[in-house]
């Protein structure tokens, strides 16, 4: 029995209805970026684009002449071609910006060339640049979604469903998905591979908790910048997993301390602004607390006292000293043990 067909990618549907000569994909998730690019290529091949050229351009002294020549010259072997332009840094430089604007304008000419541009996740300034504006104006721009930890169980369930599998209903199924997510967090490509492995090991149908527990291996990768979510929501087990994972992966205690201390300093700055009479939303904006971190601060700040935040700041100072080789009463001598003591002071209060 063959597995069910994978869901149709949104780019497939959109480009089939409305063919484009210029497509830009940007985002930091390699698996989803690759799947988006595969969808674009599949539609292009169906539309007769039989030849493909790839150019990787990076650095201030990059040579753009080959890219210009490839787009301007008709294919020798096919009526239609795909030219892929990869900018690993997302920064084309002074020379590259105008070239991309030129390529974007030329794409509307419809000479049989599909230009596919690959970019990493872009900051606000880059999105406001003239060259990115040209890509948006003359073509289709697709932003690769980010699958945060909270959304990972649903993502896993959807991938399992695509190959005809599901977890049990109720608490057992939720536990299975949470366990799966814990083991693959921060490593979406490995998560996808673990889903595929289950498709090879078991037939379509329901997967038991024991089957998932026995088959899915620990491949999680943690980022110090993601500590805030566990730290400020009081999720002690996840915080411990992340700290152990970061230590095992060779992350420096100095950098992890910076991430924790920056949250504490941010809480203190916002509370100071609130004491001056500023509403919480205004105080958060002024301190450049945005996105998911903003929601965490909004939840926690009303429950904190100035004395508590000041105590955390002192603890962060002392933990920093331990990391640098100093000794303080009540603190372990090991840098990572001191980090745990600091982190769990905050985590327990946030629980």
In terms of topology, how is this protein built?
Elements: H1 10-17, E1 22-26, H2 30-46, E2 49-56, H3 65-72, E3 80-86, H4 93-107, E4 113-119, H5 124-127, H6 130-138, E5 140-143, H7 152-162, E6 165-166, H8 171-184, H9 188-201, E7 205-206, H10 209-215, H11 227-233, H12 236-248, H13 253-275, H14 280-286, H15 291-300, H16 306-323, H17 335-350
Parallel strand pairs: 1-4, 1-5, 2-3, 3-4, 6-7
Helix pairs in contact: 1-2, 4-6, 7-8, 8-9, 8-10, 11-15, 11-17, 12-17, 13-14, 13-16, 13-17, 16-17
Account of the protein in words:
The protein is an alpha/beta fold and 351 residues long. It has 3 domains: 10-143, P-loop containing nucleotide triphosphate hydrolases (Rossmann fold, 3-Layer(aba) Sandwich); 149-215, Helicase, Ruva Protein, domain 3, CATH 1.10.8; 224-350, Zinc Finger, Delta Prime, domain 3 (Up-down Bundle). The protein is built from 17 helices and 7 strands. It has helices at 10-17, 30-46, 65-72, 93-107, 124-127, 130-138, 152-162, 171-184, 188-201, 209-215, 227-233, 236-248, 253-275, 280-286, 291-300, 306-323, 335-350, and strands at residues 22-26, 49-56, 80-86, 113-119, 140-143, 165-166, 205-206. Strand 3 (80-86), helix 4 and strand 4 form a beta-alpha-beta unit. Helix 8 packs parallel to helix 10 and helix 13 (253-275) crosses helix 14. The protein is globular, with a radius of gyration of 25 Å. Mean pLDDT is 90; it is low at 1-5.
Oligomer state equals single chain
In the predicted model, the low-confidence regions spanning at least 5 consecutive residues are 1-5
CATH topology of the largest domain: Rossmann fold
In CATH, the architecture of the largest domain is 3-Layer(aba) Sandwich
Total number of distinct structural domains: 3
Strand order of the largest sheet: 2-3-4-1-5
CATH structural class of the largest domain: Alpha Beta
Query: What share of the residues lie within helices?
Result: 55-70%
């Amino acid at each position: 029995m063959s597995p069910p067909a994978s869901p149709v990618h949104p780019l497939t549907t959109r480009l089939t209805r409305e063919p484009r000569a210029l497509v830009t994909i940007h985002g930091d998730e390699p698996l989803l970026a690759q799947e988006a690019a595969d969808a674009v290529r599949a539609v292009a091949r169906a539309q007769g684009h039989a030849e493909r050229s790839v150019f990787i351009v990076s650095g201030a002294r990059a040579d753009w002449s080959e890219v210009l020549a490839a787009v301007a010259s008709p294919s020798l072997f096919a009526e239609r071609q795909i030219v892929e332009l990869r900018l690993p840094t997302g920064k084309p430089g002074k020379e590259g910006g105008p070239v991309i604007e030129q390529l974007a304008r030329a794409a509307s000419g419809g000479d049989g060339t599909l230009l596919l541009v690959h970019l990493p996740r872009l900051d606000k300034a880059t999105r406001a640049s003239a060259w990115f504006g040209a890509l948006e104006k003359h073509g289709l721009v697709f932003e690769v979604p980010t699958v945060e930890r909270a959304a990972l169980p649903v993502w896993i369930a959807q991938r399992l469903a695509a190959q005809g599998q599901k977890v049990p209903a109720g608490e057992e199924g939720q536990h299975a998905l949470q366990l799966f997510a814990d083991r693959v967090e921060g490593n979406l490509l490995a998560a996808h591979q673990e889903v595929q492995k289950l498709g090879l090991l078991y037939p379509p149908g329901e997967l038991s908790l024991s089957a998932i527990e026995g088959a899915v291996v620990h491949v999680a990768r943690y980022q110090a910048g993601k500590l805030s979510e566990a730290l400020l929501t009081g999720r002690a087990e996840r915080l411990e997993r992340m700290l152990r994972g970061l230590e095992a992966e060779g992350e420096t205690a100095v950098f992890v301390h910076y991430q924790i201390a920056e949250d504490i300093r941010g809480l203190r700055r916002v509370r100071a602004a609130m004491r001056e009479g500023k509403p919480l939303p205004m105080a958060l904006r002024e301190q450049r607390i945005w996105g998911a971190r903003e929601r965490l601060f909004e939840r926690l700040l009303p429950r904190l006292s100035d004395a508590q935040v000041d105590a955390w700041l002192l603890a962060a100072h002392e933990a920093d000293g331990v990391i640098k080789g100093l000794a303080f009463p009540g603190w372990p001598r090991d840098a990572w043990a001191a980090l745990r003591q600091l982190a769990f002071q905050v985590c327990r209060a946030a629980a």
